[in-house]
Amino acid sequence: MNLFRKQSQTEAYAAELAGLLIGQTVVVARGEGQWFFAVGPQFVMTTYGWRLIGAKCIIVTSDDDGHHYGLPSPVDAEKLANEALAGAKIVAVEVDTRTGDCTLKIGDALTLQFLTMSMGYETWQLYQDGEFFGAVGNEGLR
Questions:
Q1: 84 in a structural domain
Q2: Band of the pLDDT at 7, cuts 50, 70, 90?
Q3: Which residues of 53-74 are buried (b: 16+ CB within 10 A; e: fewer)?
Q4: Across the chain, which distance is largest between two alpha carbons, in Å?
Q5: Secondary structure, 3-state, the chain
Q6: Are 138 and 100 spatial neighbours (Cβ–Cβ below 8 Å)?
Q7: 95 near 101, Cβ under 8 Å?
Q8: Is residue 120 part of a domain?
Q9: pLDDT above 80: residue 122
Q10: What is the domain range of residue 26?
Q11: Predicted model pTM
Q12: What gap in Å lies between CA 70 and CA 17, rounded to an integer?
């Protein structure tokens, strides 16, 4: 797969991605300056901006991590996300061809979104067994 063709390749990439990720679980890990999402035993997604949405509201986002919001202790986004995601499996994968945002539908009510936060940089990357598999940024796959 040539990952850096025109935007029209984004739809084909999204379909391939869905075939690989559906049925997998997701585990979140905080890294230095970025986040890691282990997707099943073979894949790792890295990103800077993400949010986890439940049936009625946002559960937690990357921007919430470490903020107090008047709570007794700072928000631990890694812990909250992993508690919500525990054991649930990906049921659908969508990539927005305009922005490159990636949405994982998980279980019955969860949505994990990897948000493109730059017009020039690839915001999320995917690795399979430690090897680079793809990256998406503004206007989808480039």
A1: yes
A2: very low
A3: beeeeebbbbebbeeeeeeeee
A4: 49
A5: CCCCCCCCHHHHHHHHHHHHHCCCEEEEEECCCCEEEEECCCEEEEECCEEEECCCCEEEEHHHCCCCCCCCCCCCHHHHHHHHHCCCEEEEEEECCCCCCEEEEECCCEEEEECCCCCCCEEEEEEECCEEEEEEECCECC
A6: yes
A7: yes
A8: yes
A9: no
A10: 9-130
A11: 0.87
A12: 40
More confident site: 122 or 131: 131
**Residue 75: inside a domain:** yes
Query: Number of structural domains, the chain?
Result: 1
Residue 139 resides in a domain: no
Task: Tell me the C-alpha distance between 136 and 142, whole Å.
Answer: 7
What sign does the dihedral 41-31-127-112 (CA atoms) show?
positive
CA angle, corner 142, sides to 96 and 16, nearest 5?
60
What gap in Å lies between CA 100 and CA 115, rounded to an integer? 8
pLDDT at 123: 78
